[in-house]
Each structure stands twice: as structure tokens, then as C-alpha cells.
């Protein structure tokens, strides 16, 4: 602290005490009128009601979206199960996948293919699976909801399998 200044100095010492003026003496920027105060209070209440309604609508929308997603997930799961059953049946006649991978069909083929779905670029216009064989990953992605999936396979027997799976799964 510089020399000559008293640390106990009270700058308000000797100043007259502030007196609150009568209601009519306030300036336009100092205190809003009672009517404005009430209006602000109602705006605050209305804003809280609107926010509560918006949050409620969002929660209901999320619940509906979750139900819709759950329904789509269940439908995709049913379709994938039908696909797996057909793959096991057709595997006896056509070599669609390696015979050692049949016991691990879900982990080895379906889940490996499904892990691509969340990282597909959005919006996706067309997806092409060249040399798809048994339909991995193209047909799995189509069942999961990827739009406009094209499967390209040169083996006519595998093409027949893919057409049948697409017909049964509705993709």
C-alpha cells in the first residue's frame, strides 16, 4: 500500500445516508412500475409452463420414438433369425459360408456385419455389396434398415439364395 494512505479509510464516511425516494420520484431506468413487475412475473410463469410442456412433449416424443425403435429392432431381429434359419438350410446344398463358422453364425457373420450400420455415412443414397456371397454385410444392413442396398454376386446359386432371403425378410 502506498505511503500516506490509511488502510482504515472509509470512503463513505461523511457522506449523507442514501434515502429511498417516494415511489413517484424514481427515474425511468431505476425501478420498473408495479404493472411491469406483474407482467414480468406472468411472463416468467408462462415461460416455465411452456418449458415444462416442451420437456413433457420431448419425453413423450422420445418414448414414442423408443417404442418405434424397439418395434423396428424386434422386426429386424425376426428377419435376421429367418435369414439365419434359411442360411443353415441352404448351407447343406450350397457352400455359402465356411462350415466351421456355422456354430458361431451370429458372432462371426451377423454381428460382424451389423457393426457397420452405425458408421454408415448419413444421408446414404445407395449401398453396393460386390461379391456378397451369402449376403454379408449387404443383406444384413438392408434388413437393419439401410436404404437402397444392391447385392452383386456372380454365382447363380447364391443369387437364388439371396433373392429368397430378400423375399422372406421383405427387404
Question: How would you characterize this protein structure?
Answer:
This protein is mainly alpha-helical and 171 residues long. It has 4 helices and 2 strands. The chain has helices at residues 34-91, 105-114, 138-144, 156-169, and strands at 127-130, 149-152. The chain has a two-stranded parallel sheet with strand order 1-2. The protein is globular and about 70 Å long. The model has no long low-confidence stretch (mean pLDDT 76).
Question: Which labels suit this protein?
Answer:
globular; 2 strands; two-stranded parallel ribbon; 171 residues; mainly alpha; 52% helix; single chain
| Class based on secondary structure composition and strand pairing | mainly alpha
Q: Helical region count?
A: 4
Q: What summary fits the major beta sheet?
A: 2 strands, parallel
As a percent range, the share of helical residues equals: 40-55%
Question: Poorly predicted ranges (pLDDT <50, ≥5 residues)?
Answer: none
Roughly what fraction of the amino acids lie in strands? under 5%
Topology, element by element:
Layout: H1 34-91, H2 105-114, E1 127-130, H3 138-144, E2 149-152, H4 156-169
Helix pairs in contact: 1-4
Q: How would you briefly describe this protein structure?
A:
With 171 residues, this protein is mainly alpha-helical. It has helices spanning 34-91, 105-114, 138-144, 156-169; strands at residues 127-130, 149-152.
Amino acid at each position: 500500500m502506498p505511503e500516506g494512505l490509511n488502510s482504515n479509510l472509509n470512503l463513505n464516511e461523511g457522506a449523507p445516508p442514501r434515502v429511498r425516494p417516494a415511489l413517484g420520484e424514481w427515474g425511468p431506468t431505476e425501478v420498473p412500475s408495479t404493472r411491469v413487475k406483474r407482467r414480468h412475473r406472468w411472463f416468467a410463469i408462462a415461460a416455465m409452463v411452456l418449458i415444462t410442456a416442451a420437456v413433457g412433449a420431448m419425453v413423450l416424443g422420445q418414448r414414442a420414438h423408443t417404442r418405434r425403435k424397439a418395434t423396428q429392432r424386434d422386426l429386424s431381429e425376426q428377419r435376421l433369425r429367418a435369414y439365419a434359419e434359411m442360411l443353415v438350410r441352404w448351407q447343406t446344398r450350397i457352400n455359402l459360408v465356411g462350415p466351421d463358422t456355422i456354430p458361431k453364425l451370429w458372432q462371426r457373420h451377423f454381428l460382424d456385419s451389423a457393426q457397420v450400420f452405425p458408421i454408415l455415412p448419413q444421408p446414404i443414397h445407395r449401398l453396393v455389396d460386390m461379391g456378397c456371397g451369402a449376403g454379408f454385410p449387404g443383406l444384413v444392413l438392408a434388413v437393419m434398415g439401410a436404404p437402397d442396398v444392391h447385392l452383386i454376386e456372380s454365382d447363380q446359386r447364391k443369387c437364388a439364395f439371396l433373392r429368397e432371403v430378400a423375399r422372406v425378410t421383405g427387404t
